[in-house]
Amino acid sequence: MARIDGGELLVRALAAEGVEVVFSISDISQARLLRSAQSAGMQIVGPRHESAGVHMADAWARSTGRVAVVVGAGGPGVANMVPGLICAWMEGIPLIAIGTQRVRRSVHALRRGRFQFGPQVDVVRPVT
Questions:
Q1: Stretch (H or E) spanning 96
Q2: Burial class of 47 by CB neighbour count within 10 A (0 to 12, 13 to 18, 19+)
Q3: How are strands ordered across the β-sheet holding 43-45?
Q4: Domain 6-127 falls in which CATH fold?
Q5: The model's pTM
Q6: pLDDT, tens digit, 9 for 90 and up, residues 48-83
Q7: In CA terms, which of 38, 51, 68, 69 is 20 to 30 Å from 18?
């Protein structure tokens, strides 16, 4: 049996919900996810900043009435999405925000100040 990674499983679930567009700043931690999304026929829209990506996804959801998806890099990328998440959450906008993380063996670096790490779940918990 062929192996399926987490990105492919996530894309299958999003496709089953009718997702057509993913807003994301491309990052190595998102490569498999975005490649799977493109293979599934989803359009990838690349904003210049994660905060802009959330606001773009929010506007897309409001104008189409469909669920929007935004993907941000781990750590500071997820933190940058918080202002837009607050707006979407307070207005009841159907928006899925995905924060990626580097491979598990690198997660131990979180407490050693490595690049692009941070307590993602703790950051977004109050606004989700």
A1: strand 95-99
A2: middle
A3: 43-45, 21-24, 68-72, 95-99
A4: Rossmann fold (3.40.50)
A5: 0.80
A6: 898 999 999 999 999 999 999 999 887 778 888 888
A7: 51
